[in-house]
Amino acid sequence: xxxxxxxxxxxxKPTQTLTLTCTFSxxxxxxxxxxxxxxxxxxGKALEWLALIYWDDDxxxxxxLKNRLTITKDTSKNQVVLTLTNMDPVDTATYYCAHGGxxxxxxxxxxxxxxxxxxx
Amino acid sequence: xxxxxxxxxxxSASVGDRVTITCRASQGISSWLAWYxxxxxxxxxxxIYAASSxxxxxxxxxxxxGSGTDFTLTISxxxxxxxxxxxxxxAKSFPRTFGQGTKVEIK
Lengths: 120, 107
Known about the structure:
Chain A is an all-beta fold. Chain A has strands at residues 3-7, 11-12, 18-25, 35-41, 48-54, 59-61, 69-74, 79-84, 93-101, 106-110, 114-118.
């Protein structure tokens, strides 16, 4: 049974750095073909793909946020960490991590999401 | 980036109705398309991948079709639990991109 759960701050101030951790179980991020991605959703808006990390440490980023995003993995802890620098109120959103099925072509298991609000 | 455009943005339908949602890609993506269902306050749920493959556990009233640039999600007989927002997502290239969503509402 695959499960994922996001953790991190619920409130950050403008210009601060957001660090979110995705802790998962039921699969290994050292298995060929496996990927974990991050997707966010501002309140009342559509889904936005942010980043993805593969089992071989290949990393992909949204071009619009690439300068601000970093994704890393800790295989021994079954965790993926996303950092987003220079937070702005427009970054207020629910942040999801998800297991990438089919070489991360689609996302077949999702965390419950964590709402991050950016406000001074 | 590949842009994904869904239509309609919302649809009002009754239980038992057949509902079709369309997703168009700005360039050809072969069959690299997934569909998700999202209910308020919940994470998205994968319904269809590879344009027409039904995810395990998803009712057979959901089906997907299309290739290239034009795709459809069909709900053959709408059930009360199907009222939700539906998103398409292309998986042909990075960055992965989603459509803007289609809200299926009760008529």
